[in-house]
Fold this protein.
Amino acid sequence: MLLGVMMALGVGFFSWTALGILCGKVADKRIDAMAFYAVAYSCCAVAYIPFVKWSIATGSEPRLNELLGWIGSYGALEAIGMIIVTKSMERGSQAVTWTLAQMAMIIPFLFGVIWGNDRPAIMAWVGVVLMLACVISLGFGQVKTAQNSKTSRSAIWALSGFVILGIALALSMIPSYWLGWKDESNLRTFLSVASPGILLVSVCAVRRVKIRRDVALYGISAAIAILLGYVFLYKSMDMLSSCGLTAICYPLSVGSCIIGVNLYGFIVKKEVFAKGIIWGIIGILLIVVGNA
């Protein structure tokens, strides 16, 4: 259980924090976000092909159709959610959009409790609530600088992104609940990057987006963070599943990512320290200690 928790925290604090920093640089340089994600996910898919045990995937994989359905749907919904979030940030308040996107972690948490029959300790519930308070504090603390008209215009887009991303994250957890199943073919990770990669590349092709050198460089860098994140995220889920705690995986990873990105802003970019981070740290500690 402890190793699964450490992996979930590591995914957020290292892989997803690195991805968050890269996304920030992409936004600062006004690089096309859709093209950036398309390069990142397509590179992930191509790079992971040699690691898939195709003889098992196409032969003895007992849940091949279910894996294709659930993880393929997860990847597609994630890509759609990313497109909606990008549009919301373009049309309105980035603070509101960011907050709702991060709050999507509550959907897989509740899904694990209701559908997966997970039983997190009471302290874990309190920890998740504190992490949501952290997200709200960080996000809406910036709304003062946003125009009201922008906030209102982006509300529907942001809410849609919250729901779609939350459902997508929940779908990604389903294979961890299959009794006795192990991803011996490594197909789960491949489908997780190939599905959004295909959809995003298709959207870019329809939009006739040209991939510039800077987009390619940032996309390839992001691909490393994304791929490592998926590999260890799924290992963490499977380990926590054996303890009936799959539900806490995303709150731990998202929470540590939020802390990592904000610490980077404070230490490297010399930004004002966000006091809301303290709620996130306490929340993570409660989740870990409560289920120890």
Summary: The radius of gyration is 18 Å.
